[in-house]
Specification:
Layout (H helix, E strand, L loop, with lengths): L2 H10 L8 H32 L18 E14 L16 E8 L2 E5 L6 E4 L3 E7 L1 E2 L2 E2 L5 E8 L2 E9 L5 H19 L1
Antiparallel strand pairs: 1-2, 1-9, 2-3, 3-4, 5-8, 6-7, 8-9
Pfam families: bPH_11
Protein name: PH domain-containing protein
InterPro entries: PH_bac
Length: 191
Amino acid sequence: MTTQTLYQLAAEQKSAEVTDWSARISWVIGLVVLVVFVYWLMRQGWKWRGNLQSDLPPLATTPEGYADGEKLLGLTGRYHASTTAGQWLDRIVAHGLGTRSRVELTLTAEGLDVVRPGAADFFVPAADLRGARTDKALAGKVLPEGGLLVITWALGDQLIDSGFRSDHSAEHPAWVEAVNHLTSTTEGIAR
């Protein structure tokens, strides 16, 4: 090709069309409104679920002098969620039990103290503990086999599974053994 031909080709090409900014802005605003609407619907569903579970009694608080008791085990990690016992997808959101957070667990002969920075703390008396196991899924969260410590406890008439993941998952079997031992000795005393 000669230089003359290249100049002719360059002269014949058109510049790109100017973007229609009003159409783009309309699409962006529409998308933002849709996202806000979906978020609002999710929030309403969360509130509705909390209202359905409002018949649950309030959570127990840590009793006075609890820190003076002999600490059986301690754990730091993550609190994943609480569900209706045996139903791993039926999340409980009442009383803040649906909020994921960091957690510090302390087990004594009096019960289980659950301290959650940024969320509601609660206490499970030893008489309300029903058992513990390792599992791989709870409230839609799926982890490797044995990656979740699930503690079953009673809140009023409702049995609840609460899921915890230790920073060191090798601690889970010791927790299962200790909680199950505590529940068996508590049941023996109650009889």
